[in-house]
Recover the amino acids of this structure.
């Protein structure tokens, strides 16, 4: 790692740069440990074919970096929340103002198992598919909240809050890259021009300093008039995701359709996660209707 005052190596940090780590799920325990001990830590990414980067893990630091592109520049041709010659792939694809949520759910027939990721939503753009799969997974993992949302499905404010909580809890794009433009200090670590930083949106969304009890899916966390800080799942500042409104529209439509549907969506087998250090999603997500 670069020799830098304030930077301390932490055992296990290299796992963040290994795609195999994410086949078992997002390593929130590791992110929590790193954030508590060294919130800006060096990731040696040579094994993954990268030059290495400073991982930024605290909500406040990630938000600051996103809000200041004069200090932290999006990389040319970057994907979600970055700059490119045209709109990023999730923004270009998410142009349907009438999301096909009910048509998607119609592909899950009777009580027969169906694979939401590889079958039901396979023809959707990947970032959209991962976002919607995260919404379903939140309901599957929290059946008590699923029942509560269904009982209160006429509560528009609660549904809107559930959309925001799903985005925070799931965070479909786990990290984004930036390049340091000017000398600055973050988390006690001096950063130099030309160095790369990886802003961990998923770590920021599960930072207990910003979101109490962050690993729980709490649908009313973002109710209007509440005290919840804005999540960063769709970025922040001048390079926030241009498709944020459409992402919310698609996710809200899916949650609405699921809650209105007779019966209950339940797991139909073990999900298989993506092997990716940036994309939070599934290769397979088997589900079925029950009742």
């Amino acid at each position: 790692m670069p020799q830098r005052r304030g930077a301390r190596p932490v055992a296990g940090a290299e796992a963040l740069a290994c795609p195999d780590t994410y086949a078992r799920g997002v390593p929130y325990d590791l992110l929590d440990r790193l954030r508590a001990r060294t919130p800006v830590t060096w990731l040696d990414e040579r094994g993954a074919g990268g030059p290495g980067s400073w991982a930024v893990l605290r909500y406040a630091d990630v938000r600051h970096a996103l809000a200041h592109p004069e200090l932290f520049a999006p990389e040319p041709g970057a994907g979600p929340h970055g700059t490119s010659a045209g709109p990023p792939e999730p923004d270009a694809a998410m142009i349907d103002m009438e999301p096909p949520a009910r048509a998607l759910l119609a592909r899950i027939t009777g009580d027969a198992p169906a694979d939401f990721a590889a079958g039901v939503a396979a023809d959707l753009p990947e970032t959209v598919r991962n976002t919607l799969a995260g919404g379903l997974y939140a309901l599957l993992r929290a059946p008590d909240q699923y029942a509560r949302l269904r009982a209160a499905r006429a509560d528009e404010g609660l549904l809107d809050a559930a959309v925001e909580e799903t985005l925070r809890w799931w965070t479909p794009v786990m990290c984004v890259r930036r390049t340091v433009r000017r000398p600055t200090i973050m988390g006690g670590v001096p950063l130099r021009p030309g160095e790369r930083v990886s802003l961990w949106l998923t770590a920021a969304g599960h930072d207990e300093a910003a979101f109490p009890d962050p690993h729980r899916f709490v649908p009313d966390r973002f109710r209007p008039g509440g005290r919840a800080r804005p999540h960063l799942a769709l970025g922040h500042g001048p390079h926030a995701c241009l498709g944020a409104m459409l992402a919310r529209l698609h996710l809200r439509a899916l949650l609405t359709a699921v809650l209105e549907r007779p019966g209950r969506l339940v797991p139909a087998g073990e999900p298989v996660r993506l092997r990716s250090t940036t994309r939070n999603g599934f290769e397979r997500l088997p589900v079925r209707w029950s009742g």
Remarks:
- DSSP finds eleven helices and twelve strands in the chain.
